[in-house]
Design brief:
Chain lengths: 382, 246, 355
């Protein structure tokens, strides 16, 4: 194991792998990623893996636009011929009441002004794109053809392989037990495999971010909330678009393998880092999705699981340095979108840490916004 | 016979084979084109001009044994895959045959494949010496000199792989490749390969993958944890779930 | 939501014994059985059982299933057939599919007696039609009256391999050979002798090298193996056969126990990962008990006593006054069944379990 490193990234999900990759790409050397389990064992490997640019805030639009452009060329850029299974079948956000219609129109105007070519579909147009939809409860749908989903395991592996090829080191099954500081500056990481001396640590531990931060007495305003997903048996392709609804509270996609992956927000979820399964999720999820897409009633659920959303107060990520510890950075608070933000996260953290010119307006995504009240509001979250 | 069986007779093969003397001088193309059909790419593509220009597009090709240097351009041009290049000077005991092969996956260099005769019957085993990924791909095999008139095709050896995960159709070769890439826990392999994610939920394959990991990595079986056992043990229709009432 | 005192998963020898023991104490018991028929593996067992009087020695398995069923005939015990337990959640809810209906159960205590799963092994051709688990062959033959094959090679000379080979002979099926990788026959030797008297060869230190056939199995290649379990070249024998029966052991069906968060221990002598449990079948999670093959693969006689012990322990946990003698009697029976040289492996395994 490395005894010294210029940069130590804590967390082997999409964020950690992307930050590692973009650091090396921008000239950094001697970068280490630490993962207490295996790559994607946390939120990345448990997420719904949707990629969309249809948001209600300019910030999220810009971040996901950057990421989506990256994903379109990721196989070449990262050199991953196996493929990351990026399926751009479009994302359809169902509109089922007048308030939602008004908000959707506003969102589409914003998105269009940023070059995101989303559009409002009437019920018939939605039905053409998604024939299995029961349009009885739907007024309209927002649609963007470039949105879609990809395979989180392969995407993270693609970043990790590129990172290793460029000279980075990844230590899996390596837990962080302590952080060492000296005169208010980070100087090392204690791991289950030994000590690494470093003067830069990036905390991107998802739901566990505050546990790592607490090692030096820091805390950021996020909490981890359990979210549930289920997957069905694979069947022939019958659903090309990702279907989602904020008011009906669900998202559902058919992945290239043929399985349907679907999730929804449940009430009263534990916030104690548990990722056990929820006993009331299967029937609630099934009832929701069968109502919207009745054809799914004969498809069998194979498995359910849960993962953690690291929720920030304004549902936007936090990219910053911890205020009281020099050299200690954080990328967290993704509020359920960390996977699709991965490339943006990598680019932004590399720019912050290496002092590069910002390509994205990340200066508004720092911790200070929670004190000054300059939070960015986002309405479009399941 | 060829008309009835599709297999040229030994006399037909003899009729187009070069002389012993020419064969001893180095590689040469052999064209098994016995039926006049309207086709001439071999003649028009030969950089050496070794195939006499056709008077009629239905002409059969005639090779000038002195001009042909066995470059193999004609192999790729022949739409009937009728041409091979034979090099009897490859080694003391073995000859090199270059033949077109249009099946995937292509064999690997060094792989031992089955060498087949003109009726597809297995005659011998042969080592793959070169793989040229053209259109069509050309495979060079080293064979016993005594068999050069007999051998005309190859086929991969029947797989020694055993099925390991039936639901996701993964065999021992697939799994060993994941292990070789550094994925050395059940969960890590599961996430990349969908091992154990099918209807059986890992009931059948979990003991097998653990044993395979233990064997390949020379570690005790008990050092491997099974993948996470998630609900549900047996699949259930979404419609049946949706109908649940308290 | 169904509320019950005790949920029993599985109506095999262990589950029925647990249900009978708890039901006799007046507890409300719900038994979920995946099959349309209760009795578990007992219903396929046409041979006479070993053991002693308490475990119905000298009766045949399917007769014992009927005895156990009689014992649960009481109004407070409900046996639900065609009912597959699906999941155990950390809020104490268990789900199941009954016919086409999804149900949820909130029990005060649970006995998991889900049985075991047949193991498989890796060899080329292991997915050819005609390669069966021994249990499947036994089900076809003894439960559904189907002659499953014409000529069989049996892999495994444990009790299952030996017994199923004998039953195949009884059904008029030719058994070409019994092949066993271990240097010694693993099952009871009286079973082995029954086969040898019928002219069936038993090849120890041999295993299957490969299975071949065009559409379905046509031949099985076996070979001798050395002390490192590696095949010895040029010892191959090709057996013509339409069926290869795999009887290489069982894995405890523990998925529900894993889901419930029970501490699991790897004990090869008991079939692989098994739940940690105390001497009274209590797992590491309060109120959850394991019995039968799900707690560690042993004989049906042990499953019955273990099931009874689990049922009594659960009743005691739920506040019923169970005299120590009843518990001790189970301990004594288990000790007797596991005593002697044939039980040495199990005793070694149980020793690992408690550490």
């Amino acid at each position: 194991m490395n005894r010294t490193a210029d940069y130590v990234i804590i967390g082997g999900g999409i964020s950690g792998a992307a930050i590692g990759y973009f650091l090396l790409k921008n000239g950094a050397k001697n970068v280490v990623i630490l993962e207490r389990n295996y790559l994607t064992a946390g939120a990345t490997g448990r997420c719904g893996a949707g990629i969309r640019q249809q948001w209600g805030s300019e910030m999220n639009c810009l971040l996901t636009q950057f990421s989506c452009n990256f994903f379109e060329n990721a196989e070449e850029e990262l050199g991953y011929p196996e493929g990351i299974e990026f399926h751009q079948g479009g994302y359809m956000l169902l509109v089922s009441n007048e308030d939602e219609l008004a908000q959707t129109k506003k969102n589409i105007a914003l998105q269009n002004s940023l070059g995101i070519e989303s559009q409002l579909l009437d019920v018939n147009q939605a039905k053409v794109l998604t024939p299995i939809l029961d349009t009885g409860n739907i007024l309209a749908a927002a649609y963007h053809s470039k949105d879609g989903h990809l395979n989180p395991f392969k995407t993270t592996q693609a970043f990790a392989d590129a990172f290793i090829r460029m000279g980075g080191n990844i230590y899996t099954n390596t837990a962080v037990h302590g952080l060492k500081t000296e005169n208010g500056r980070i100087c090392g990481v204690d791991t289950s495999q030994g000590h690494i001396a470093t003067d830069c640590v990036i905390n991107t531990a998802g739901g566990h971010t505050n546990i790592i931060a607490a090692l030096v007495g820091e805390e950021i305003p996020i909490y981890a909330e359990r979210h549930n997903i289920l997957v069905t048996e694979p069947v022939e392709p019958i659903l090309s678009t990702m279907v989602m609804s904020l008011s009906l509270n669900f998202y559902c996609q058919q992945v290239p393998h043929g399985s349907f992956v679907m999730g929804r927000s449940c009430t009263n979820q534990p916030r104690d880092l548990r990722v056990t399964a929820d006993s009331s999720f299967p029937e609630n999820m099934a009832a929701t999705v069968v109502k919207i897409m009745p054809a799914l009633k004969n498809i069998r659920m194979l498995r359910q699981w849960a993962g953690l959303y690291d929720m920030s107060p304004d549902k936007h990520p936090i990219y910053d340095r911890f205020p009281n510890v020099e050299g200690f950075y954080v990328a967290a608070g993704f509020s359920g979108h960390g996977f699709m933000l991965g490339p943006a996260t990598g680019q932004i953290m590399a720019e912050q840490i290496l002092g590069l010119e910002p390509t994205l307006p990340w200066n508004r995504l720092g911790l200070s916004r929670f004190e000054t009240g300059e939070m960015i509001l986002e309405s479009s979250v399941v | 016979m060829l008309e009835k069986t599709g297999v040229p007779t030994p006399e037909q093969v003899d009729s187009i084979f070069p002389t012993e003397e020419r064969l001893s001088q180095g590689p040469i193309a052999i064209i098994e084109c016995f039926q006049p059909i309207p086709c001439d790419p071999c003649a028009t593509s030969c950089p050496q001009g070794a195939i006499a220009p056709f008077m009629d597009i239905n002409d059969l090709p005639i090779i000038n044994n002195k001009k042909c240097n066995g470059c193999g351009i004609c192999i790729m041009k022949c739409p009937g895959l009728a041409i091979i290049v034979l090099d009897m000077t490859y080694s003391e005991t073995q000859a090199l045959i270059r033949l077109p092969y249009e099946f995937s996956p292509l064999p690997q260099i060094g792989e031992i494949v089955l060498a087949l005769d003109r009726s597809g019957a297995k005659v011998a085993e042969a080592e793959v010496i070169r793989v040229t990924k053209g259109k069509p791909p050309i495979i060079s095999i080293a064979v016993d000199k005594a068999l050069v008139k007999t051998l005309r095709n190859i086929r991969p050896q029947p797989s020694e792989a055993a099925i390991l995960c039936r639901c996701s159709d993964l065999n021992t070769d697939d799994i060993r490749e994941f292990i070789a890439q550094g994925h050395t826990t059940v969960d890590a392999i599961k996430r990349l390969s969908r091992l154990g994610m099918g209807p059986c939920q890992g009931r059948t394959c979990t003991p097998l993958i653990i044993r395979e990991l233990a064997t390949v990595l020379s570690k005790p079986v008990e050092s491997f944890q099974p993948g996470t056992y998630r609900p549900v043990v047996k699949s259930i229709k979404l419609g049946e779930l949706a109908e649940y009432t308290e | 939501m169904i509320y019950t005192d005790l949920l029993v998963v599985g109506a095999g020898p262990a589950g029925l014994s647990a249900a009978a023991a708890a039901g006799t104490q007046g507890l409300d018991v719900l038994v979920l059985e995946r099959s349309h028929q209760p009795g578990g593996q007992l219903v396929k067992q046409t041979h006479m059982f070993f053991g002693s009087k308490e475990q119905y020695a000298a009766y045949r398995g399917f007769e014992i299933a009927d005895f156990l069923l009689d014992m649960i005939k009481m109004p407070n015990v409900k046996l639900q057939l065609n009912a597959t337990a699906l999941a155990a959640y950390d809020d104490g809810i268990w789900t199941a599919q009954v016919g086409e209906k999804y149900i949820k159960v909130k029990p005060r205590a649970v006995v998991v007696a889900a049985g075991a799963n047949e193991r498989n092994i890796l060899f080329p051709g292991n997915d050819l039609p005609g390669v069966y688990g021994a249990g499947a062959v036994q089900t076809l033959m003894n439960q559904y009256g189907v002659r499953p094959a014409k000529r069989v090679v049996m892999l495994g000379a444990g009790n299952i391999g030996l017994i199923v080979s004998y039953q195949l002979l009884q059904a008029g099926v030719e058994v070409a050979a019994v092949v066993e990788a271990s240097p010694n026959i693993g099952g009871y030797l009286v079973h082995a002798s029954k086969l040898r008297r019928m002219g069936v060869p038993i090849l120890t230190s041999h295993t299957v090298k490969r299975a071949d056939g065009n559409e379905t199995l046509e031949s099985v290649t076996t070979w001798a193996i050395d002390e490192k379990w590696q095949g010895i070249p040029s010892t191959e024998v090709i057996w013509s056969a339409d069926t290869l029966c795999i009887a290489v052991g069982l894995s405890p069906l523990c998925e529900l126990l894993w889901q419930a968060g029970c501490k699991m221990v790897f004990v090869p002598e008991l079939g692989g990962y098994v739940p940690y449990r105390d001497g009274n079948m209590a797992t590491s999670i309060e109120g959850i008990y394991a019995a039968g093959d799900a707690a560690g693969v042993e004989e049906a006689s042990v499953a019955m006593v273990g099931g009874k012990l689990a049922g009594l322990s659960a009743a005691r946990y739920l506040g019923v006054d169970i005299p120590d003698e009843s518990i001790l009697d189970c301990h004594k029976q288990l000790e007797a069944l596991r005593s002697g040289p044939a039980g040495a492996k199990i005793r070694a395994g149980l020793g690992k379990l408690t550490h």
